């Protein structure tokens, strides 16, 4: 009740309720009130006896009447755990939370040290939770002056506690306690080893009592019996940090006494106090010390920040510029500071090492306090918590580490045992206690006032449940609930319904805004997909005659689709009523709102909140975009990009009473250039709203989005970088998506950390070990000697011309007008290099021996990287066949170090050759300019290329042989009538995807048709259409013959038809294809049969290589003969030229007059 009067209510919280009801005050049961005026202390067990007896009865079962079913049933209940603050933890559990062994989780294994100057205990020793060989364990001076060899303590289970305390008697009551003797003051000359550490203390003697809860028959089996107070732990930790870094008098843990403790412990000599000539002490600045200017910047960030509605209180009122400190913060204020605002304020005024540790501590608290928890992630959080606390030990003095700071190490484990923290923390309990305190009208009898007020409240709550038509406290929607009328919601498209707030304004849209809003609806409506494809096909057909590029076609489509749709529909095209309504467009007269509620968020326009202390105009939307490498790029790249904006307008489109759509118009930051978005050194996303895109001034702009697409963010102004803002995300309150309980659903609904995870091993120079992570979604195997790798080549068929698709990451491309555009760049595969060396990525194969799956894409990307490595595979060889086997084997071994391959070595080498030739061709196209001299060509060395290799390659390309080979290649490409439409995807991956989709095997004919059609289903060229028809007719002919002639075999019919239509293949190649099909059909053959087929296959492979060598030799002979003939013709031409010159001279002499 006050500092002089203490009343202890005992509240029961039923957990068999939904999460949005469970922790509400209407669900709490006030079971008893322990009277004051002093706290009960250990005597609380006396007051709890009636409750314990009732809990025993509920465990056995109580007969109860069910009004709904009109029958009796046996009601049973159990006490799961207790929720209490940390001092009450000692009264309920029996373990003292003060002194040397104050940690109830570590118990007798608590690591503490008495600080003689600070006159208190310091709880460090967090190195016990690190790996056995971690470097921190052996660093003395950076920690407490000792090396750490102990392991993490194990918590004592309930049965062991009962066994320890079974023969010990405890006395209750103030009169029965032994007399308190005066504590002996510790002597300065006492040895630390003797007085500071007790070897193996008797844990039974450290218990104050045996808790009355052990009388419950199941209590000793509960793993988690009493919860640590997360609310006050977070509050005290944040208060310690703020008080220390701001050097607040009375709150800072860095003072003269703490520095003298460093002297006693013989650690951190650079921080020892220095004695001045006048006898005073000078404290050297520490790594976390802040100057006056830095403190002002810190306070400025917190003073200027605006947070969303219902997010937090107005923290700016607690900031004092004069004193450079924070005043009158509540527990929830510290919660918001710890999890969101403190790292933002420190990032621009504190050293990187300290800021990184505090950011990581913030991430840990954020992960623990999430609505959805993942056990595997919490286990990682446990390791990160240990590492973070160890790094804090290297930064802050020992006096910083109070028992509350130490308890952070146990919070992840309790979250694993008890689940989400919001079921177990003190915030709802503290609010309920505040409400009970408001019932106290008669201060002479406060307990009676609370009881009467609570009973009256319960009676009114009971009666209000029967008032269905009246709005009561129980059925009133929450502050940011949004629209609850489901009938009205059905009239809104794209789930854009919500609840508008404030005054409605009726305005008329201008032409450009009307087109942009209407067009956005048409482009996202599913029923418009066939019509959109139809119009795109029309534009493509027109573009063939006008030679328009893909980007120009998209521009025409964007600008004119709404007009074409309206003209097409109203000209009599057979469409449904929904399309007819949408085709006519919305009414130009629209409703405009200044605030809107949807999905648990409250949004305000930027103009509406200009004078408010809250910020509700920040939005973020994830959108799919199409990126072009240039104006002539015909293969654009699709990708998702997050756009950050400020809400400027909220409009409601009305499709003439049939449909309605809520659209948000925003000022979008330019996320396509580094001048509009960037990441700082800590990984924070920063945006610049002086660089905008999609402003709505041009017809092609898209300033509108659906209200259901956006999520809320808020921005903090960067005081050191003009015009830039840090992005912070907001999570809606009281919004629970229960999902279907699957693991994927849990991952999707898990709350992401607000800040990027900090790598403390990089930030702290003395620590270099880094945990490696497993690649998500890939098959990983241990990197052990694989005895089956040698036989993998004997089980894999190769010979396909397919190359796996590659993984490319976007990069910025400089355009002619000076701007940048995101295009597909070089393969990076940064995740692959983070893989533990003990693991490899397992690459599977299909029945034809081709790599498939997501691992195949990773393999192809890595092969491309090796093919571009000039040191491993030089480019100064005329062809891949001239490349030494040592280089090829080196590349192959490098691949096998990272991948467990089921495909053969020949396939890998063949793919390497294809990538090597592609890289060589790209270099020639970009850097080998024909219109410059040879010397300039030799000097134009590509970045990262060895000069001698480039000079050899240039001389070959510039030679007669290189020019002849180029002409042969150009001639061959000109003869190619068509190509496939897969881009970088392989035939194998397409075939696998089609087989998974259809459930049937994909033959060569079907694969040919799939890979030679456009997105709209039409053949890519007229030649491809003609061949498809021939293939189809030929197959129908064979099927008709087979229906009358049983001797016709249709098993290998695809290969026969391909040969007849596309031309004969070489005998060896056809036999290889037959063997591949045979191996694919073998399911239960013996090892001898497989070996025989493999032997034939290898023999035919050798024959193929011999034929290829013969063809290459014949081509070389033809080139030599052509060169000889050309030399002979040139010689004859020169002779004729000489004869003609002689004749001309003779003719000129004959025309001269005689002298």
Describe this entry's structure for a reader.
Residues 792-804 have a biased composition (Polar residues). Residues 174-203, 780-825, 1112-1134 are annotated as: Disordered. InterPro entries: DUF4216 (IPR025312), DUF4218 (IPR025452), Probable_transposase_24 (IPR004252), Transposase_21 (IPR004242). Helices cover 42% and strands 12% of the residues. The strands form nine sheets. Strands 12, 13, 16, 17, 18, 19, 20, 21, 22, 23 and 24 form an eleven-stranded antiparallel sheet that branches. Strands 25, 28, 29 and 30 form a four-stranded mixed sheet that branches. Strands 11-14-15 form a three-stranded antiparallel sheet, with no helix packed on it. The chain starts with 7 loop residues before the first strand and ends with a helix. The chain is globular, with a radius of gyration of 39 Å. 26% of the residues are buried. Among the domains are: 486-732, no CATH class; 773-927, no CATH class; 980-1081, no CATH class; 1088-1146. The chain is α+β, with helices and mostly antiparallel strands. A hairpin with a 5-residue loop joins β19 (677-679) and β20. The longest helix is centred in the C-terminal third of the chain and has 65 residues, at 1087-1151.
